[in-house]
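pasting for ref. prot 1 ->
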Amino acid sequence: MAIIPTVPRTSRLVLDSVCAADLMTPNPMSLRAEATVPEAIAWLTEKGFSAAPVIDESGRPIGVVSRADILVHERERLHSPLAWSDDRATVADIMTPAVFSVAPHTPVELVVEQLLTLNVHQLYVVDEHPYLIGVISAHDVLRHLHS
């Protein structure tokens, strides 16, 4: 009698979500565009965030400020002949003026594809106005994977 080896079953991970709204963390914390750089540093370090969306006075996202943006600003400031003066720069002055976003109804496959294609760690979810209503991180996607 021949023994037929069993082939181990490979488990396939699947997302238990259908759209961006299922993955997102609602009501993300954000920084105002007019916040000062020292305020942003304090806020990011206090919250333990590496980046945050920047919103205008109406609540619409206009950019993202990251630790790297702040470090670049500080490097440039230190090399400036006016480095000894007060730093009056605002978050709007140093932020990356791009917001990678998706709509709440965006399929999860497209969310994952965008995260990978854009090589970003977060996508922001905006409604039709477009107000910031959520954030999706790579961590959020991983939390929704199961076999």
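and prot 2 ->
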Amino acid sequence: MIQTAENDAVRADSYLTLHYRVSLDVTAAGAAGTADGADRGDVVSTFGSKPATLQLGAGQLSPALEERLLGLPPGAHRVFELAADEAFGPRNPSLVQRLPRKVLEAESDRIDYVAGDVVEFNAPGGGRYAGVFRSLDSDYATFDFNHPLAGQPVRFEVEIIGIL
């Protein structure tokens, strides 16, 4: 690929081909790890498989992750450590909600969920949104609508293959 001045570095509206990995610091999360804290769990990774193609600003990555890409040239390989609350925002307690059981029954064919299951709901206007099932009693189902990585430190590794 011939590089021109306009695609020498990642911009806020760039189309990119890249490998990336988002991983959790499982040691910081309280799990057993190595003495140097290097034990990490991948949440998503394209390394070792087909690279991703995405457009910055389209919501495919969180704004904090996109910000780390700005200014990187093709071929750059970087690792960024993002503090808890930074990559996917802080946890918002108001996003843990109790919904009437009848709402869950109207949205789903089943109610035999296990804590941690992701349940999708219809949104006004035809969209969809998801919540993580937490519990169910005779009248209410409790869901967490926070991003699953909200409030957690993450490691973001990226290799820029091309800027389109």
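The beta strands are 15-25, 40-45, 52-55, 77-82, 96-100, 118-122, 128-136, 140-144, 154-163.
The radius of gyration is 19 Å.
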